């Protein structure tokens, strides 16, 4: 048995090492293919400056990574430089796509540009990559991985010409606002791994924020002097958004572009031997998980993406209809052909290494036995697994069972907002599940090593969060079932209905197992808190105080959330429960006065059939929205109305009953005009 385990460990290690080495080679081949494209087609598919910077990072970074890897002694020291290089290249390549339209807007030409529409994808890629790095660093307690990723991702952002240009000229674009989550993710993980900021660090942060605000304001007003009038008037939307843009860009300069500086400041903290590492199979597992995720998110960027739309590199011979140009045959040259061949082999290599690692983990677990494996996982491991389960519940699709190709096994808790009739809260559910998952994983790291008096309170907080996760996962079983059955009634094609049934049948047992995991973690936490003499035990009086405090915070938080998500509806016409409403009367919703940049949507259904009623929307810019059905309402029918918003507000629902016929003198509302002033 030991010999088999050693062979599997060798296979997993060398498979992980080969995957991590080959992945940067894909980027080097892409650089060569893009240069060949420019020579053969007399133009580039991405902006030449962005390609040049990406190429410099790929070549110089590869040389430095190989040098540091050869100097490494421990397993993590040999793989860490190559993992940092992979992170650098992923962000740099996606950044070249992001930078191209902004550089084009500054007058720099791109002859064969794809139909680029970022729509926040670059920022989400960065946040997702940072989140995965943080999770792996916390689970493995690998400080150096956290700091290396912080430096690599920050360097790629710092050298992105489009991001810098647009931030200088207009401030940080709205599609890139999610980048502000990066320092929070990395520094939050550092706190969980034992870093403690001093007062001087907080003073530096405050000073940098003030300096960033001054720099942002000077640049914004310097390039756009007319914003002064808009800001002073307070009438136009641009005037209302200027202060927010200054604050956002002020945080961007020191805390996002300054990520390499923060990595430099954390280098000594990360220099010690990382606890929990030093074993080849652990390093191999972390490396495989990281390189597989990076390959997954960067795969469409790495060369022409056949059948994925026009947002990626064009294929040789393809005609770009939006610019009326045809890519020459063989434009990418031999490097493009080698890239395509290596892309075909790379997933098989990663998959084989992953199978070897899973077999190794199973062999080690079998050698420990069931009880030994559970003891090895312990409460911290259970918290980490439960955190991953909550992150998996984040609803990637708003109505997953209605799509033809959703994930085969899907987290069911994502359907909770729709199941209770509050689709507008889906955004809040995503945020809450993500924060809960990260918090559980973050608490698992200090609970492995902390033997101080605060261990009991950390266990108390972790148990309460695990209780919330268990309740959500349990409620998700009901919500997912309800939502799937609703979707199946709406699907008309038998094959789609059968696919939804299969997805529910496969998702239910997996989600039920995750709910049981949640309750098992709660039980383990309770046992740790109440075992007399245990390292995490708290006295009954301390537990009562903690529960009272937690209950008070929960009540205050629920009240604040209820107020924050309330729809600002002043009145509706007809009123809720009205009867005798003329069949030619429109629905009118009036919002309370205030500044906002969104308007509500109105949908109506007949109570007896549940069918949606087609009609025309109208309204005004002063906060009034209306809806009139085509041909009027049915006589003597009960109508259910839902008022929703795109801003994460709770839907407002009411109903009324129509009269036997129309009433004279009612004028249908006109079309909804574009607002001339903001509403917030």
Can you offer a commentary on this structure?
- By secondary structure, the chain is α+β, with helices and mostly antiparallel strands.
- It folds into three domains: 2-195 and 266-355, no CATH class; 393-564, no CATH class; 569-658, Immunoglobulin-like (Sandwich).
- It has helices at residues 2-41, 48-71, 75-105, 121-140, 143-158, 161-170, 181-192, 199-223, 227-233, 237-255, 259-265, 280-298, 333-392, 416-419, 426-449, 454-490, 494-530, 540-564; strands at residues 319-320, 325-326, 569-573, 578-581, 587-591, 601-606, 615-620, 624-629, 638-644, 652-658.
- The strands form three sheets. It has a four-stranded antiparallel sheet with strand order 3-5-8-7, with no helix packed on it. Strands 4-10-9-6 form a four-stranded mixed sheet, with no helix packed on it.
- A hairpin with a 4-residue loop joins strand 1 (319-320) and strand 2 (325-326).
- Helix 1 (2-41) packs parallel to helix 12 (280-298) and helix 12 crosses helix 13.
- The protein is globular.
- The termini are far apart.
Task: Reconstruct the topology from this structure.
Blueprint (H helix, E strand, L loop, with lengths): L1 H40 L6 H24 L3 H31 L15 H20 L2 H16 L2 H10 L10 H12 L6 H25 L3 H7 L3 H19 L3 H7 L14 H19 L20 E2 L4 E2 L6 H60 L23 H4 L6 H24 L4 H37 L3 H37 L9 H25 L4 E5 L4 E4 L5 E5 L9 E6 L8 E6 L3 E6 L8 E7 L7 E7 L22
Parallel strand pairs: 4-10
Antiparallel strand pairs: 1-2, 3-5, 5-8, 6-9, 7-8, 9-10
């Amino acid at each position: 048995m030991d010999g088999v385990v050693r062979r599997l460990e060798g296979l997993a290690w060398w498979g992980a090492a080969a995957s991590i080495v080959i992945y940067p080679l894909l980027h080097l081949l892409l650089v060569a293919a893009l240069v060949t494209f420019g020579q053969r087609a007399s133009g580039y598919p991405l902006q030449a400056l962005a390609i040049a910077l990406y190429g410099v990072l790929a070549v110089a970074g590869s040389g430095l990574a190989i040098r540091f890897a050869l100097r490494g002694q421990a397993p993590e020291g040999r793989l860490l430089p190559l993992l940092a290089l992979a992170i650098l290249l992923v962000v740099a390549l996606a950044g070249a796509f992001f930078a191209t339209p902004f550089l084009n807007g500054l007058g720099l030409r791109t002859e064969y540009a794809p139909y680029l529409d970022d729509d926040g994808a670059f920022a989400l890629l960065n946040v997702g990559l940072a989140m995965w790095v943080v999770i792996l660093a916390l689970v493995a307690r690998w400080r150096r991985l956290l700091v290396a990723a912080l430096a690599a991702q920050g360097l790629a952002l710092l050298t992105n010409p489009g991001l810098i240009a647009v931030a200088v000229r207009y401030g940080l674009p709205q599609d890139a606002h999610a980048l502000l989550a990066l320092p929070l993710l990395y520094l939050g993980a550092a706190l969980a791994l034992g870093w403690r900021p001093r007062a001087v660090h907080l003073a530096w942060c405050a000073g940098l924020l003030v300096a960033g605000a001054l720099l942002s304001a000077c640049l914004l007003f310097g390039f756009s002097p007319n914003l002064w009038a808009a800001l002073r008037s307070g009438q136009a939307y641009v005037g209302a958004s200027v202060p927010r843009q200054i604050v956002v860009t002020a945080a961007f300069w020191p805390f996002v572009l300054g990520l390499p500086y923060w990595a430099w400041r954390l280098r000594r903290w990360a220099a010690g031997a990382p606890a929990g590492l030093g074993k080849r199979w652990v390093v191999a597992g972390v490396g495989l998980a990281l390189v597989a995720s990076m390959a997954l998110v960067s795969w469409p960027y790495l060369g022409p993406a056949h059948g994925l739309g026009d947002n990626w590199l064009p294929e040789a011979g393809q005609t770009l209809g939006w610019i009326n140009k045809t890519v020459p045959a063989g434009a990418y040259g031999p490097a493009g052909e080698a890239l395509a061949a290596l892309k075909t082999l790379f997933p098989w290599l990663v998959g084989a290494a992953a199978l070897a690692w899973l077999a190794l983990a199973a062999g080690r677990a079998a050698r420990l036995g069931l009880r030994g494996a559970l003891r090895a996982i312990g409460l911290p491991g259970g918290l980490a697994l439960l955190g991953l389960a909550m992150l998996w519940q984040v609803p990637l699709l708003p109505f997953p069972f209605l799509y033809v190709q959703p994930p085969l096994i899907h987290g069911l808790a994502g359907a909770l907002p729709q199941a209770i009739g509050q689709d507008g809260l889906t955004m809040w559910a995503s945020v809450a599940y993500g924060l809960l998952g990260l918090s559980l994983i973050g608490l698992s790291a200090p609970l492995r090593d902390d033997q101080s008096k605060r261990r009991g309170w950390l266990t108390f907080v972790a148990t309460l969060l695990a209780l919330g996760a268990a309740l959500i996962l349990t409620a998700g079983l009901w919500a997912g079932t309800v939502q799937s059955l609703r979707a199946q009634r709406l699907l008309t094609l038998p094959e789609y209905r059968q696919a939804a049934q299969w997805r529910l049948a496969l998702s239910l047992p997996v989600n039920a197992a995750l709910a049981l995991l949640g309750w098992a973690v709660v039980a383990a936490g309770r046992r740790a808190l109440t075992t007399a003499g245990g390292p995490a035990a708290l006295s009954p009086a301390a537990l009562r105080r903690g529960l009272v405090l937690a209950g008070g915070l929960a009540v205050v938080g629920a009240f604040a959330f209820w107020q924050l998500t309330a729809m600002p509806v002043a009145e509706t016409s007809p009123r809720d429960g009205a009867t005798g409403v003329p069949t030619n009367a429109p629905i009118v919703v009036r919002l309370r006065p205030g500044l906002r940049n969104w308007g509500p949507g109105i949908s109506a259904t007949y109570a007896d059939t549940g069918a949606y009623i087609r009609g025309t929307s109208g309204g005004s810019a002063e906060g009034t929205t209306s809806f009139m059905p085509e041909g009027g309402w049915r006589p003597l029918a009960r109508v259910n109305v839902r008022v929703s918003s795109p801003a994460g507000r709770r839907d407002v629902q009411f109903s009324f009953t129509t009269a036997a016929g129309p009433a004279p003198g009612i004028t249908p509302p006109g079309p909804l005009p574009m607002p001339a002033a903001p509403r917030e």
